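Continuing the batch. This is chain 6 of the set; chains 1 through 5 are on the previous pages. Same settings as before, nothing changed between runs. Recording input and output for traceability.
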Amino acid sequence: MIMNVVTQPSRKDWNKILLRPELDTAALQQKVRSVLDVVKQDGDKAVRQFTRQFDEVNLEEFLVPAAEIEAAAAEVPDDLKKAIAQAASNIKCFHEKQIAAVEVVEPMPGVQCWRKSVGIEKVGLYIPGGSAPLFSTILMLAIPAKMAGCKEIILCSPPGKDGKLNPAILYAAQLTGVSKIFRIGGVQAIAAMAYGTETVPQVYKIFGPGNQYVTCAKQLVQQEGVAIDMPAGPSEVCVLADGTANAAFVAADLLSQAEHGTDSQVLLVTTEESLVEKVNKELEYQLKTLPRKAMATASLQNSKAIVVKDINEAIALVNEYAAEHLIIACDKEEAIAERITNAGSVFLGNYSPESAGDYASGTNHTLPTNGFAKAYSGVSLDSFVKKITYQKLSKEGLQAIGNTVELMAEAEGLDAHKNAVSIRLKQ
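Output for chain 6:
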């Protein structure tokens, strides 16, 4: 038996069963803070030191030159370029619909109000490298950033042992209009973007996934006034399945998440105990051929298959879990989806694998994890803009609304506020 099976748990036990793996956050924060502080003080010198220490790479220059970016494009196979172009087109299409026209509202004659979206001038993108260089995340972040009007888009990604970045990362960055690419990873990359160094520009908001150290670094710099996309932890998927689900498909979906890392979490919630047995057999079979078998196996040790009495209880359970990715492999999946209140992104039916959203359907794959889907949305065009409100009152408009403002200001004991209106009404 690969997945840990829990059958018809009592509601009072749900919180305990649905707990994510916990970390020693105090010790983690101490380690991360020490790196942030040194980079803040010593800039590029500290970045070089930590790149040597953590990535075992000696680098003098972090900025990837234009010639290297051009050369990398030639290394990317044509079929992969076509796939990236298709994904980019779908992502752009989906995010374009999020652009809202400025609409002037006139609550009363002579009083006009409107709201305008303005791109955040400088944003930083963190793109994991290593064994899984996530060039797809560049599409998910740089495309809406460019559409939103961000003037400077900085990208940091950890270098390989040869000191270079994966060619697909460089190609995707060039394709999407990234301003500058730096071969810097880990906490030192977050610090460089948050504080600025001699070569890395300081940004106003940092986006992108990462390991526990990167996530902690983002949360710590947020306390110092640098915005981040969202709190995030290890990636996760929940599959809600009934008797109509295809066990092979369910197992494939669970494994597609489990291979992210040993701390990834996968959850199966079902009304059919027999499905769990079928899924476990499929997991054993499909695991045999996975290159990242060891990582996926370790992740599955923390996984759970929860059998509940009916679909109503199943829906309540997945809403309580608030998964980053929720796959609904059930009959009447759209009706069930209408009752989902907590999820980062939802995948409906047997032919909507999480992988489609991860790469190319068009929706954004940068999503809240660790239960934050109860209060946070995934990244969208809105994530890259500030929404500034405006108002314009004519003399007649102020005369119409003035008494209301005066009465409210006086009631709050703010006489200067009242006078700012009164002095105008007397003119």
